[in-house]
Specification:
The chain is α+β, with helices and mostly antiparallel strands. It is about 35% helix and about 20% strand. The chain is built from five helices and seven strands. It has a five-stranded antiparallel sheet with strand order 1-2-3-4-5, with helices on one face. A two-stranded antiparallel ribbon has the order 6-7. Helix 2 packs antiparallel against helix 4 and helix 3 crosses helix 4. The longest helix is centred in the N-terminal third of the chain and has 15 residues. The model has no long low-confidence stretch (mean pLDDT about 90).
């Protein structure tokens, strides 16, 4: 992971590890992979079976990689606005000492969110901006399994 994270600043390391998880483990929202809930088993499950894993598995793997590198991290279950919608999506937040805040990172879509000035945002900031109708910018290389861009 030291090699994956690289020699840049904290933010570049956080984003490099995000990209690594997205690029190394395929997403399949319909597959509840039969493996342990840890980064090594999730990674090995995908590599040995070729099957993707769901968003929770991806978030768990990313969380453990961040923690092993000394970054504070959590995975967060995001519930839909519609109370009748039983689906959810799991993302991560990583603490940036450099920015002095939690930032939103999503390994399923290789995504992070910024404001119109390029400042990385956390979950509460994204929520506030959605409520207020202020701009949110998804990184241009956000995608699903390198098959579909989600940035537009």
């Amino acid at each position: 992971l030291d090699e994956v994270a690289g020699d840049g600043d904290e933010i570049s390391k956080i984003l490099n590890i995000l990209h690594f998880v997205h690029d190394s483990i395929r997403h399949d929202g319909g597959n509840y992979a039969l493996c342990e809930f840890d980064a090594i088993d999730i990674y090995n499950y995908h590599k040995s079976t070729g099957k993707g894993v769901n968003c929770r598995h991806l978030a768990i793997a990313l969380n453990e990689m961040y923690l092993s590198m000394g970054f504070r991290s959590r995975y967060v279950t995001c519930m839909p606005k519609d109370p009748n919608d039983q689906d959810c999506h799991v993302i991560n937040v990583a603490w940036s000492s450099q920015l002095e805040k939690w930032i939103w990172v999503d390994p399923t879509f290789n995504a992070y969110v910024t404001d119109e000035h390029g400042n990385l945002l956390g979950i509460a900031e994204v929520r506030e901006r959605l409520i207020d109708g202020r701009p949110l910018v998804l990184n241009e290389d956000a995608n699903w399994n390198h098959e579909a861009s989600v940035a537009n």
